[in-house]
Write a structure and sequence with these properties.
Largest sheet: 4 strands, antiparallel
Number of domains: 1
Distance between the termini: 24 Å
Shape: globular
Strand order of the largest sheet: 1-3-2-4
């Protein structure tokens, strides 16, 4: 699903895109949190696309690479799936 390109808070993103993978443009993370989970440290960002297929979203990262300084991929469903991002390597993986 393609979305409006406006900044949303973590709470808005989790509420709107329940149980989905979401690519977030220019994510603002709370560096003060001792968390390794992007979804837990996300403060706000621009939702770009969402869906239930993580691989399909990951395949579209390059489309947004030139428009945004950084991109994160989060899962808004049950905890247990954690999204990790490596902005310098431009890869998305899950643990």
């Amino acid at each position: 699903m393609v979305m409006e390109r406006e900044i949303k808070t973590r709470e808005q993103i989790l509420s709107i895109y329940k149980g989905q993978w979401v690519l977030i443009g220019n994510p603002k993370l709370d560096d003060a949190l001792p968390s390794t989970s992007v979804v837990n440290s996300l403060m706000e960002g621009i939702p770009l696309i969402s869906g239930v297929d993580k691989k399909a979203l990951a395949a579209q990262v390059s489309k947004f690479r030139t428009e945004y300084k950084s991109i994160a991929c989060i899962f808004t469903g049950k905890q247990g799936k954690k999204a990790c991002l490596d902005l310098k390597e431009q890869t998305i993986s899950t643990t």
